[in-house]
Design goal:
Strand content: 25-35%
Structural class: mainly beta
Helix content: under 10%
Largest sheet: 18 strands, mixed
Radius of gyration: 19 Å
Number of strands: 29
């Protein structure tokens, strides 16, 4: 069944108990493992396979949706890096170490890499943590750097309310800095499982406070806890942005092919509480929300399972998706593509010149909007887009 939505002409789909559509458009069974999680949710990585993963990272497709034509505002464009504050590496792969990355991120400023002419994967031995005294942190991989959590750890962490990273204001939940830009990077195999501070989540990147934007980057095979009613964001978890300004995600890819997507209780790619998102010219595919019991958790369950691609909850916030493709994501509960709940019904969802397809919601979704569960102001605004 294909539905093309232009100026909000829609078709119907059952709100509760919707079938799980396969990639060919026919009903299919979601591939949940015996323990209630996808068969690919956990795995053991040998030394040999880890080396193969490094090679595969270099062969990933270019980030973003090449057909996306959404306008990118000035504040969402790449940061200049011609005069970096510090450079990781001395021209060889061996000089680009986890220790060097951790030190550079802690020092802040504009960070670039010199790791030789070929793509390189840096195996992170510790999570890189941003110090809250840093006004600005730009990390630019030049399209050749993969930061890998090795399936063991979160890759990058920023939290203005974490006193261990420096207490800089009396209003840590709404401060303007640090301002973090992640561009031309690949984040692979991050895993925040067991990291429950601030609600957990953020398998590759966790951010609270300041501002963050992601440009020209890729997120593959990231993980966070498999259960929990609000826990989410296998790739990126964001809380408390300054003045409630949006998180920009521009020309980036989350997953991108079978086996590359993120897996978490909620938000197989992106997750936020009270956070606005603007997703431009990007691809979000093959991610899974694997929790069971939704939010609040049904009796006898641990909760979760919503937002195969994007999980957005809170009061007044917005989500805008433009020039983007969201496909082949799955939710065990609601919103195979997007789970959007504005508790006070003031939040808005806009989908413009985008394609959402084959995003099954095994539990529930909003009638007429395949792959979406929406509670907010009015109805989702959908223009020149395809939902099916």
């Amino acid at each position: 069944m294909r539905i093309t939505l232009c100026a909000l002409s829609v078709t119907s789909l059952v709100l509760s108990g919707a079938p799980a559509w396969g990639t060919a458009g026919s009903p299919a069974t979601l591939a949940w493992g015996a323990a209630g999680s996808p068969a690919t949710a956990t795995r053991t990585v040998s030394t040999a396979s880890a080396l193969a993963t490094a090679d595969a990272s270099a062969a990933l497709p270019a980030p973003g949706n090449p057909a996306g034509r959404a306008y990118v505002p000035a504040e969402a464009r790449p940061a200049g890096t011609s005069r970096p504050t510090r450079v990781v590496g001395k021209g060889t792969p061996a000089s680009c170490t986890s220790q060097a990355v951790v030190a550079a991120v802690a020092a802040g400023g504009v960070i670039t890499f010199s790791c030789g002419p070929r793509p390189v994967t840096i195996a992170m031995k510790a999570t890189a943590k941003i110090r809250n005294a840093s006004a600005r942190v730009v990390i630019d991989g030049g399209g050749k750097v993969t930061l890998s959590g090795g399936g063991k750890r979160r890759i990058l962490y920023m939290n203005t309310c974490d006193k261990a990273q420096g207490w800089t204001t009396s209003h840590c939940d709404d401060q303007a800095t640090p301002q973090l830009t992640l561009q031309n990077l690949t984040f692979a195999d991050g895993n925040s499982t067991g990291q429950r501070a601030e609600g957990g989540g953020g398998g590759a990147v966790f951010v609270r406070g300041g501002r963050v934007k992601v440009i020209g980057s890729r997120f593959v095979r990231n993980r966070c806890d498999p259960s929990g009613p609000d826990l989410g964001g296998a790739a990126l978890r964001v809380l408390d942005q300054s003045r409630d300004l949006p998180v920009y995600v521009v020309r980036s890819t989350f997953g991108g092919a079978p086996g590359l997507g993120g897996i978490c209780s909620n938000g197989g790619a992106l997750s936020g509480i009270g956070v606005s998102w603007v997703v431009l010219n990007s691809v979000i595919s093959d991610n899974k929300a694997i929790g069971r019991g939704a939010n609040p958790a049904r009796g006898g369950t641990a909760g979760g399972g919503s937002g195969g691609a994007i999980y957005a909850d809170g009061n007044r916030f917005t989500v805008r998706v433009a020039g983007s493709i969201i496909k082949n994501n799955q939710a065990r509960e609601g919103g195979g593509a997007i789970f959007f709940v504005s508790n006070d019904r003031t939040g808005t969802l806009t989908i413009d010149h985008s394609t959402l397809r084959h995003n099954p919601s095994a539990g529930f979704e909003t009638r007429g909007y395949p792959g979406i569960f929406f509670l907010g102001a009015g109805k989702p605004k959908v223009t020149s887009s395809t939902l099916r």
